[in-house]
Amino acid sequence: MDIGNIIKKAGLKVTPQRKILYGIMTQLGHGTIEEIIIKVQEENPDITVSTVYRILDSFCDVKLLSRINHPNGKSYFDITPSDHHHVIVDNELIDYSDPELTELIKQHLKGKMFENLDIDKITVQITANYKKD
Ligand SMILES: [Zn+2]
Which of 14, 21, 59, 99 is the most buried (most CB within 10 A)? Predict the structure, then answer.
């Protein structure tokens, strides 16, 4: 699907700025606001920082992107729409898909305080270091 259609399907108006930003996120996968702003302004210096923030917010509202809080204190935007977990090794953020783990957690939570809740999303964030030997 082309970028315009993805944005339209999510219920947003297709604008050149939104298309640029979404295209950049498909390249980055995960990006901090600083990284995204640099890339956007490389492509089009006329797009202001506040526009970038506004577009990212609108993408998050319609779930084209999600936000991840990295233990380094930075916030990342994540384009992968399907449910997935993250492994952080030496500051690097790696997608980790494990539907079995997600299901295990869901089953574990059933009958706890989640009885009356429909779980929307489960994201596990694992921090790790490479073994030194
Ligand atoms: Zn991710």
Answer: 21
